[in-house]
Write a structure and sequence with these properties.
With 1633 residues, this protein is mainly beta.
Length: 1633
């Protein structure tokens, strides 16, 4: 009974335990924390709990001693559980686990015993030992309660009661907690704890959770985290920029204004609390200031510190950590951060433990997400600590550790956040809400009150301008501003009306250093000089204009000038917009009044403007600049150092100082561009050619400036303006050896003469200018000649209407006839024609004028006609070249100035197919990118109305390691052009939207994480690798090293050419594939592996017990192939075996490599019969290591064994099949059914890139092994290494000349560019890689008729003498071959995309007598079925032929057709080629061997691009020396042997001649041939045995499974004479000699 009672009690206890365990309390936003009784930890104690959550961070548990020292903090940090505690001897940290936010329950135990403390999570334990002498945890009576999930908000106002004050700012735990067990009374055992405030929490039965409200509907926006509650989902706004129930509202920015006496701070040491510690922290803030120096942020603990400040307009960071210190200064070139614009600063630090005593801290600082610095510090530290911090300053900024500035910050700060692991403090928000953590010094204003209207802006180019609303000054108005410049001419303000017939006008300009005001109320204009002194002195000047009715007063620097407008009108009606800084190219000069000279000359203002006030209302120019042309109009106004000091102007051009820019005068050079580095477009006119620009009927000016360079030997018209119905003109001409300028206005005319002997066929520069009636003419650098038109008259009498400008000759555009003139047309060269700021020759080239009969519009009412031709420069002037050493290298330049017009020029050179060259992102959808895609240039941009892609249409690929030029322009608002070398592409848009860019211009690539976010249309996913040079941007020639705002250490100055492949880079005939900074070895056809094809491949041994290996392609990998590549290495002593067989899954197609009588053969059938080829000259059953290489392209194929001749086969006649259908299975070690099994070792088998032996070693299920086959761990080194050719690194000078460019990357290298074939657009899959192939040959055979007597083996680098090609360009010489043929040489074209086929003419084995006898024999057409690559000199007589006699046989065996003339056998010494059809989309650089009947030798076949290559080989004469290396006795013995041999040869020749005369043998062949035959595998073998016939003993063909293998070869007796009809025998064909 007692036993039953105990059992019932046990069961009841278990049930109660299960019942309690099924309950847990949930912590969420509505229930942020729970509070339990005190933990009686004392000296010994444990605490246990279980939790589950899906949040990686959160405070799980906290308790302390009431605010003195001791505490326990348990929190999740990035999914790991961290225990931080202090028992009086200093804080300790224990971290256990990972990915604990997986939504599963995890059990935690904290245990301590004296100085030892442990943390256990799911059975994993970590321990620490506390320092000090006292280990008692506080006092039980004063200790705090245990808080789970967070702390009450009341602690915000009493941080001094917390031993760890920062705990109040920790993120709250979100999840479930259960089974919290510890002792809550002295002397009591641990027990399950009950909630002290259970009414504030909700309990949930964990096994029966209701549906998740967030899963049904997640209403949170802007990254808010949804939390399910009983009342529905609520949102926790993690992003500090948003607030509201669903994080839907923009949060008011936490910003403040600092004036130098205000700052924020906290000091945890004052409260007695522990510092904030972490393994990583982040400081982020935004700042805006006009001051170049000021403290931004400081934090530290004891000797550790981090100090951030604005210093000299840049960003300074100093850090001390442990015993390591680090300092960084971010100050980009031409970019400052004291421009009163918002800048974002982010600093990250992260500690990584290296050893128990040493840690590593990485630190990075990034400004505006662009300008960055990275560094690191190593030392004896484990954590980052912060016990105090300062924001915006301190009582003594100079005294702070690491201080580099001594002043507090003046300006605005916002969103100052300090994050340490899970802790996140928004310091300005805390100060604004009155947090006790933050101390505020001074009267801080929580808003940025600094106005931007007074901020200056800088106009950096003449085209830079801003557009504001019109100036409202109908009856009265005021306008004032301040300006600063050192450039003497520029339009500052322009506002025009549209009232007919006259338009009201207001304008302010600087002309020749003085301020002029233009005012026209519609009844007449007035021009007032407002300044008494020059204002182009780089100082600030004040301008003020007051106007009432017709009266006005202008004040410049306190000096007044009054004026009155003429006429009766007293209202200024301005309908147009107010232009500030200029008009830009898009504004037509025809719409400006003639009296506004800077507008006519297109001279915008370059300098600074600030404090623009219209009618008392300040205008925020910086805001307009941000919205419009933010690249050309920059905030702030800084005076930089002198620009000409660095001599930026090239080619002897003069340099003058502009406003923060160098002005290069290129007029006396043949170069143009911002720094005179780029060749100027030059045109040639032959006397009947001309360039005409039509400007329209409304183009009226009072001033003109003209620049022109010419070169001629004759007198002629240079340039002339014309007007319909008027004789007014400006005319420049070469007359009597001088330059004559003639100006006519009405009845006034003036001629000026300058220069001497200018028709000397040398370049001369002529400048002409007119200012109303004042004229000036200058030739070259001589003193200018001046003159006037009677008297200076302003107004209508001094205006010139220009309809057309004629350059080089007169032309009537409507009648298209030449206008008669007293001057002959110009004959010679012209360049640099600039008229009133428009470069017409450059514009004609940009628009492609002259390339078609269509006129290309310049502006809405203008066009150019040009029928001359542009002169191509002799060479490119490469300057400021750099090398991008990898695809991950990139740099950043300041924002591209492309708002209204685009100007981007550069050269590049590479061997890579693809890469991003330039990218500049923009606002909304705007961007521009230039990239290399499949060897061609793409320019991609979006103006907001869709992506536009322009592609070059060059017929050659551009990754040919040559310099190529790229010019991208936007000459008009709607026309975009791209010129790559000589190819011009143009795109016309339907709108004239502006390109609104921001950030920086990335060059060479972008950061790695940006590629996935690049806009649609940009294809590149890697950077550019190669050289770039001569980069010209608007107004500057940028240096990618010196001017980079985002620099890169991987960018090097100069163009470092690619790491070159050499003749012995890859071992064992591996193909060296050229890349830019490296090379790779293609080992597919070597049977070896490794980086240089030197390592042994995986090998298998096939024993005598018939081992078979079968590889089956996966169904998805079964494919039709037009080209095949097979290579294998083998060792065997078996003279008859099948090495491998490749079969189709649904056709009779097959390929079989086999050994017949010790010789290797390959038989292939792609649907048109068996095609065998083999090499009978090399036996492979000798137990040595051999490598067989086979390639097929269509019906053509080639086979090579080791370094022997390449055997080539090209079947002729009929429709040849080219595709191997459905390649599905490879049988290795035997034929079909295991017949004729192989025994020996096979290694490195590669079939079209697949390596079956490697897969077998990896236990690939696609491989099946049967019988006696096993892995061979190593080949016999005596058999293997003796066959290898090791690599020997780089070669000497001159190896670049032996590069063979293959595939799509070859480009056209023909001397005649017209011979190049335009690549098809679909050739993008071809890899563009230059390939180098070693050139090795067997020793040549000597002709008896060769008189040189000194020809040796081909030149090797170690044996070459001077002139042989070593150390420089290869000089290819050819021995003199005796001509033995009067017939026509027959060749056939074979090409290779990846290997160079070096060939030699094999010497005739016959004597000269025999050769002459052969010339008299009758011939039949050449059999093309079995050809060896490279011809042997053959004597033929084409007009004497005998038809072939046909015979029909029943046996499927065949005897090959033998021509009745001497067969032409062709050999290639060296590597086996990969034959490639010459489709238009593939261009190769390999030699072409042509064997087409009735073609002249060395003439290219039309189907093969017309390449002409000689079949040559290198020879050299031996080095002569006086030192005897052979003893005299040996020489004497050799002489005797030679004499005896000569006598024997003579006797043999006599016998042969006698026999020939006696028996009258016919040396031609008679053949009986079945028209319907299957070629046997022995075709190559039988076809080369001249005096034997073989009879096949058994039928062999595709049907018998052996693929045409030959068996039972029996010799037939040789007859003395050939019978009239061959004896018929079953199953054979016969021939007789």
């Amino acid at each position: 009974m007692s036993a039953d009672l105990r059992t019932m009690r046990y069961v009841l206890v278990c049930l109660l335990s299960l019942t309690f365990n099924s309950f847990a309390f949930v912590l969420d936003k509505q229930n942020p924390y729970s509070q339990f009784r005190k933990w009686n930890v004392g000296l010994n104690g444990t605490l246990e709990l279980e939790f589950k959550t899906d949040q990686p961070n959160g405070l799980l548990l906290y308790t302390d001693d009431g605010g003195t020292y001791d505490f326990f903090e348990l929190k999740l940090v990035n999914g790991a559980l961290r225990l931080r505690y202090n028992l009086g001897g200093g804080a300790q940290i224990i971290t256990v686990g990972s990915n604990l936010n997986d939504g599963h329950w995890h059990k935690v135990q904290v245990a301590r015993r004296d100085e030892h403390t442990s943390l256990t999570v799911d059975g994993i334990v970590q321990r620490k030992t506390s320092r000090g002498k006292e280990y008692v945890f506080g006092k039980f009576n004063t200790n705090s309660d245990v808080f789970v999930g967070g702390l009450p908000s009341s602690y915000n106002s009493k941080l001094t009661t917390l031993a760890l004050p920062s705990v109040i700012f920790e993120p709250k735990f979100r999840g479930s907690v259960r089974n919290l067990v510890y002792s809550d009374l002295p002397g009591q055992p641990p027990r399950r704890q009950e909630l002290r405030h259970s009414r504030d929490l909700k309990s949930t039965r964990t096994g029966n959770a209701s549906g998740d409200a967030c899963e049904r509907r997640d209403p949170c926006q802007h990254g808010g985290v949804c939390i399910s509650t009983d009342d529905g989902p609520i949102c926790e706004c993690r992003d500090g920029d948003y607030e509201g129930a669903f994080c839907e509202r923009d949060k008011a920015p936490s910003e403040a204004t600092f004036r130098g006496a205000e700052f924020l701070s906290y000091d945890l040491t004052q409260t007695g609390g522990e510092p904030i510690v972490s393994t990583q922290d982040v400081i982020s803030l935004y700042f805006k200031t006009r001051q170049p120096n000021g403290l931004l942020f400081y934090t530290g603990h004891e000797a550790d510190y981090l100090n951030l400040a604005v210093r000299d307009g840049g960003l300074s960071l100093t850090m001390g950590l442990g015993n390591g210190k680090q300092e960084m200064h971010i100050k980009p070139s031409k970019t400052r951060f004291d421009d009163h614009q918002w800048h974002k600063l982010t600093v990250r630090r992260k500690i990584q433990e290296i050893t128990p005593f040493t840690s590593f801290c990485r630190v990075s600082a990034v400004v505006d997400d662009v300008y960055s610095e990275h560094s690191h510090v190593a030392g004896s530290f484990t954590m980052l600590a912060s016990s105090r911090a300062h924001v915006g300053g301190s009582l003594n900024a100079r005294a702070l550790p690491g201080a580099r500035v001594h002043t507090n910050f003046i300006g605005c700060l916002k969103k100052v956040e300090f994050s340490a692991d899970t802790l996140r403090l928004n310091l300005i928000d805390l100060a604004r809400t009155g947090s006790k953590l933050i101390t505020v010094t001074g009267r801080l204003e929580y808003a940025c009150t600094a106005t931007d209207s007074a901020d200056p802006v800088t106009f950096t180019t003449r085209d830079a301008h801003l557009i504001l609303p019109k100036w409202e000054a109908v009856k009265t108005g005021t306008i004032s501003f301040k300006f600063r410049t050192n450039e003497p001419n520029g339009l500052i303000l322009f506002n025009m009306g549209a009232k007919p017939p006259r338009a009201d006008l207001f304008a302010v300009e600087i002309l020749n250093g003085y301020i002029y005001v233009h005012m026209d109320l519609g009844s007449g204009g007035v021009r007032v000089r407002a300044s008494r002194r020059r204002v182009d002195d780089s100082h600030w000047h004040e301008f003020l204009l007051r106007r009432t009715g017709r009266d006005g007063r202008v004040t410049v620097d306190g000096a007044n000038a009054e004026f009155k407008t003429p006429g009766e009108s007293n209202q200024l009606e301005l309908d147009g917009q107010l232009y500030v800084g200029g008009l830009g190219q898009e504004y037509s000069a025809a719409r400006t009044p003639p009296a506004l000279w800077t507008a006519a000359l297109r001279q915008g203002f370059v300098g600074c403007i600030r404090d623009l006030v219209l009618n008392g209302k300040p205008q925020d120019l910086t805001a307009y600049a941000r919205q419009q042309d933010s690249a050309s109009v920059r905030p702030a106004c800084h005076v930089l150092m002198k620009q000409c000091v660095s001599s930026p102007c090239q080619n002897g051009a003069g340099c003058s100082e502009g406003w923060n820019r160098a002005l290069c005068d290129c007029s006396t050079t043949n170069y143009g561009g911002p720094t005179c580095g780029r060749e100027s477009p030059t045109i040639y006119l032959n006397g009947s050619q001309h360039l005409t620009a039509a400007l329209g009927p409304e183009h009226v000016t009072q001033t003109e400036e003209l620049l022109l360079r010419f070169r001629t030997t004759k007198a002629g018209l240079l340039v002339r303006t014309a007007t319909e119905g008027s004789a007014d003109r400006i005319e420049l001409a070469v007359a009597a050896g001088r330059v004559r300028a003639s100006v006519r206005l009405g009845d006034r005319e003036k001629n000026l003469l300058a220069g001497t002997n200018v028709a000397d066929d040398k370049w001369h520069t002529v400048r002409f200018s007119r200012r109303a009636s004042n004229l000036k003419l200058q030739v070259d650098g001589a003193q200018p000649v001046r003159g006037t038109l009677s008297e200076t008259i302003l107004g209508k009498a001094s205006t010139l209407e220009i309809t057309t400008i004629h350059l080089g000759g007169l032309y009537h555009p409507e009648e298209e006839i030449q206008i008669t003139s007293t001057l002959p047309n110009f004959v010679g060269y012209l360049q640099k024609f600039v008229f009133n700021g428009v470069k017409y020759i450059d514009l004609a080239r940009t628009l492609g004028v002259g390339s078609s009969n269509e006129n290309n519009h310049i502006y809405d009412t203008s066009n150019i006609i040009f029928n001359g031709k542009f002169v191509k420069p002799d060479s490119l002037n490469v300057y400021k070249s750099v090398t991008f050493k990898s695809k991950h290298t990139y740099v950043g330049l300041p924002l591209l100035k492309a708002y209204a017009n685009t100007y981007l020029d550069f050269y590049f050179r590479t061997t890579e197919m693809d890469g991003l060259l330039f990218y500049n992102g923009g606002k909304k959808q705007d961007f521009i990118a230039v990239e290399l895609v499949n060897g061609h240039i793409h320019c991609v941009f979006n103006l907001g109305d869709g992506v536009v892609t322009m592609k070059d249409k060059l017929k050659n690929f551009l990754n040919d390691n040559r310099w190529h030029t790229v010019s991208i322009r936007r000459p008009t608002p709607k026309i975009h052009t791209m010129q790559v070398d000589d190819d011009l592409e143009m795109h016309t848009t339907s709108s004239n939207l502006m390109l609104e860019l921001d950030s920086v211009l990335y060059v060479g690539g972008v950061p790695k994480d940006m590629y996935t976010s690049l806009p649609v249309g940009v294809i590149s996913r890697q950077g550019f690798e190669g050289c770039m040079s001569s980069l010209d941007l608007p107004g500057e020639s940028s240096s990618l090293i010196e001017d980079a705002v985002v620099p890169s250490s991987s960018l090097v100055s100069g163009c470092e050419g690619p790491t070159k492949c050499t003749h012995n880079t890859c071992a064992n005939k591996g193909v060296c594939v050229q890349q830019w900074n490296t090379y790779v070895c293609d080992c597919e056809l070597t049977s070896f592996t490794g980086p240089t094809c030197y390592d042994e491949s995986i090998a298998y041994e096939f024993g005598p017990g018939r081992g078979i290996m079968t590889f089956t392609f996966a169904p998805s990998a079964v494919a039709d192939t037009e080209t095949d590549r097979v290579a294998v290495g083998f060792v065997t002593t078996k003279s008859d075996a099948v090495i491998l067989r490749i079969e189709s899954s649904n056709t009779q197609d097959y390929m079989q490599m086999e050994i017949i009588r010790g010789n290797l053969f390959m038989v292939y059938n792609v649907g048109d019969g068996d095609h065998p080829l083999g090499d009978e000259t090399a036996r492979v059953d000798d137990g040595a290591y051999h490598v067989a290489r086979f390639t097929r392209n269509g019906s053509r194929a080639a086979l090579q064994i080791d370094s022997y001749a390449v055997i080539i086969r090209h079947p002729q006649g009929g429709q040849q099949s080219t595709v191997f259908n459905s390649m599905a299975r490879i049988t290795i070690g035997g034929g079909a059914g295991g017949a004729r099994s192989f025994s020996g070792v096979l290694a490195g088998l590669a079939v079209n890139g697949a390596r079956p032996l490697d897969r077998a070693a990896a236990a690939d299920p696609a491989l099946a092994l049967r019988g006696d086959v096993r892995r061979a761990h190593a080949l016999d080194p005596d058999l293997n290494r003796m066959q290898q050719t090791p690599p020997s690194g780089y070669g000497g000078p001159g190896v670049l000349d032996e590069l063979v460019y293959s595939g799509a990357g070859s480009g056209c290298r023909d001397d005649d560019e017209d011979a190049c074939v335009l690549p098809d657009a679909g050739s993008g899959d071809d890899l563009i890689t230059p390939v180098y192939v070693p050139s090795t040959r067997r020793p040549p055979k000597m002709h008896k008729g060769d008189t040189s007597g000194k020809l040796m083996k081909p030149c090797d680098d170690e044996d070459c003498i001077e002139g042989s090609g070593a150390g420089g360009e290869d000089i290819i010489t050819e021995p003199e071959h005796p001509m033995t043929s009067s017939g026509v040489s027959s060749t056939h074209s074979m090409t290779s995309p990846t290997a160079a086929i070096s060939t030699e003419h094999e010497r005739e084995r016959t004597s000269p007598t025999e050769a002459r006898a052969t010339a008299d024999t009758r011939t039949t057409p050449l059999d093309h079925d079995n050809i060896h690559a490279a011809t042997r000199d053959t004597a033929t007589t084409p007009d004497r032929t005998t038809p072939t006699e046909d015979r029909t046989h029943t046996s499927p065996q065949f005897t090959p057709s033998i021509p009745k003339h001497t067969d032409s056998t062709h050999y290639t010494e060296n590597n086996i080629p990969d034959y490639e059809d010459h489709h238009p989309e593939k261009e190769t650089r390999t030699p072409t061997f042509e064997m087409e009947e009735e073609r002249i030798p060395s003439r290219g076949h039309a189907d093969y691009n017309g390449y002409e290559h000689e079949i040559t080989t290198k020879w050299y004469h031996p080095k002569t020396t006086d030192n005897r290396v052979v003893p005299p006795e040996s020489e004497f013995f050799a002489t005797i042997v030679g004499i005896v041999a000569s006598v024997l040869i003579a006797i043999i020749l006599i016998v042969i001649i006698v026999l020939k005369l006696v028996f009258k043998l016919d040396t031609s062949y008679k053949v009986t041939e079945d028209k319907n035959y299957q070629q046997s595998a022995s075709a190559a073998l039988l076809g080369n045995q001249a005096h034997s016939s073989y009879q096949t003993g058994a039928s062999s063909g595709p049907s018998n499974g052996n693929g045409g293998a030959v068996r039972g070869l029996q010799p037939l007796p040789l007859g003395r004479t050939a019978p009239a009809q061959p004896v018929k025998r079953d199953g054979i064909k016969e021939w007789y000699v």
